[in-house]
Design brief:
The chain is α+β, with helices and mostly antiparallel strands. It folds into two domains: about 210 residues, Fumarate Reductase Cytochrome B subunit (Up-down Bundle), CATH 1.20.950; about 160 residues, Beta Barrel (Lipocalin). The chain has seven helices and eleven strands. The protein has an eleven-stranded mixed β-sheet. α1 runs antiparallel to α2, α3 packs parallel to α6 and α4 packs antiparallel against α6. It is elongated. The protein binds protoporphyrin IX containing FE (2 copies). One protoporphyrin IX containing FE binds next to α1, α2, α3 and α4.
């Protein structure tokens, strides 16, 4: 038994590669399907779902690297000759399926990985080399495109595997030839005097099917993603907000997940000179349903967390007071039915009639009954960092 392939059988290295990838994929694929369908309505079920996803992703990344090694080896090696070269259609289908498998060995883990790198939070890959990928931005649109491609490509892969296994069994049980044995035991199959013709057509067909799959994945579906935050300027006050972002950062499974509210408005009265120790007042009204928080947006909006169905608005009403390093807005945040005193320190730069402010504060989700069933910090941290940046014009 040789390490190398011959025209009569697969060598030890090719067989080790084949069965290692086969075993990893036959584990990773069901884990992906199971992880996707697991519920996440309690802290325990969410933690379990994340574990299954992490296992899925970690196995998937291993598949990617093993697959690269395997493909490199296959390029260097001879391919055992088909045992029935005269069965032209059967041979063509077998080669098409082999190409489908080779392409999916790279395309499936890569799209999963890009999806993972583009979306923030939830279920890390269990390894020390970071969670991002070079050239992959953190973007909802990229994540959605890669996620859809992952879904479609896994379906092409699963169909190919089913056809592939059916073919192997057919050779073994019906033809009773050495096709399966030469991949399992390295049995030397009888030499076939009739050479098989090689054409590029199976490869082109496989590439076209994946191209078609990518096209299907790119079809628009569902609601468009809101990428441009809208800040509605409230009419009162002497400053009108023209642009701004309202961001929150939470710790989920040990990772920081940042997101933002797309729709909010601010009613600001501000004078450079304080009257009775006060520079003015501010009221910020936030549409809680406009929150986008990476892969956990739906969960964040659910009844356990922001409960946007029951509490569609959050309101922060505050006085603007002078502070050691700039100003602070000191008042009450009404969120999810709870009224909590909040102070937001901020810096302000006024250039003529344009003001730019940047502020940050920290909240404790427990004060608002957010994630009450998540009693410790193992899934979701207690602290929430709020960042506000805005530009306003004097009216
Ligand atoms: C060869 C390796 C892989 C295989 C065979 C595979 C297979 C699958 C399957 C079958 C699903 C379920 C799709 C469905 O619900 O029907 C899935 C989902 C998923 N996989 Fe993979 N996967 C692989 C690698 C990866 C990698 C490397 C990552 C990330 C690093 C990843 C991330 C995901 C994610 C995030 C989902 C859920 C997608 C969603 O929410 O729409 N996968 N995968
Ligand atoms: C129980 C499952 C599997 C069985 C019984 C099986 C069986 C076989 C056999 C018998 C061959 C040799 C075909 C020949 O000599 O013409 C083969 C080749 C191959 N298998 Fe599998 N296989 C399985 C799973 C997989 C999986 C999951 C993958 C990858 C996703 C895979 C990818 C391939 C590829 C790419 C080849 C072609 C090797 C070459 O370039 O010559 N197989 N398989």
């Amino acid at each position: 038994m040789s390490a190398r392939n011959s025209h009569r059988s697969y060598g030890r290295v090719a067989r080790l590669f084949h069965w290692t990838t086969a075993a990893l994929i036959l584990l990773a694929a069901p884990l992906g399907i199971i992880a996707n369908r697991l519920p996440y309505d309690t802290a325990q079920s969410l933690a379990f779902k994340a574990q299954v996803f992490s296992l899925h992703k970690t196995l998937g990344v291993v598949v990617f690297f093993v697959a690269l090694g395997r493909i490199l080896w296959a390029l260097l090696e001879a391919h055992p000759a088909p045992l029935h070269p005269e069965r032209r259609l059967e041979l063509w289908v077998a080669r098409l399926v082999h190409w489908m498998l080779y392409i999916s060995l790279v395309a499936v883990p890569l799209t999963g990985w890009v999806h993972h790198a583009a979306v923030t939070g939830f279920a890390p890959i269990w390894w020390p080399f970071g969670q991002g990928l070079p050239f992959v931005p953190q973007s909802e649109a990229v994540a959605q495109a890669a996620g859809s491609a992952h879904w479609v490509f896994t379906k092409l892969m699963i169909v190919s595997i089913i056809l592939h296994i059916a073919g192997a069994l057919k050779h073994h049980v019906i033809d009773r030839d050495d096709t399966l044995r030469r991949m399992t035991l390295g049995t030397l199959a009888p030499a076939n005097p009739v050479p098989a013709r090689r054409t590029a057509l199976p490869l082109l067909t496989a590439a076209a099917l994946f191209g078609l799959g990518a096209g299907v994945a790119a079809l628009p579906r569902g609601e468009p993603i809101t990428t441009t935050p809208t800040v509605a300027a409230a009419p009162a006050g002497n400053w009108q907000v023209s642009a701004g972002t309202l961001t929150i950062g939470v710790t989920q499974m040990g990772q920081t997940v940042t997101g933002s509210f797309a729709n909010w408005s601010a009613d600001i009265t501000f004078n450079e000179v304080a009257t009775e120790g006060r520079h003015g007042t501010v009221t910020v009204t936030i549409d809680t349903g406009s929150l986008a928080l990476g892969s956990i947006t739906a969960q964040a909006k659910s009844a356990d967390f922001f409960d946007v169905a029951a509490f569609p608005q959050a309101v922060f009403t505050a006085d603007i007071l002078p502070a050691a390093s700039g100003y602070e807005a000191t008042g009450t945040l009404t969120l999810r039915g709870a009224e909590v005193p909040v102070t937001l320190p901020f810096t302000l730069t006024i250039d003529g009639d344009t003001a730019t402010m940047t502020g940050q504060t920290s909240l404790d989700r427990r004060d608002f009954g957010i994630g009450a069933s998540y009693g410790d910090e193992s899934s979701v941290g207690f602290g929430v960092v709020v960042d506000v940046d805005l530009t306003a014009n004097r009216s």
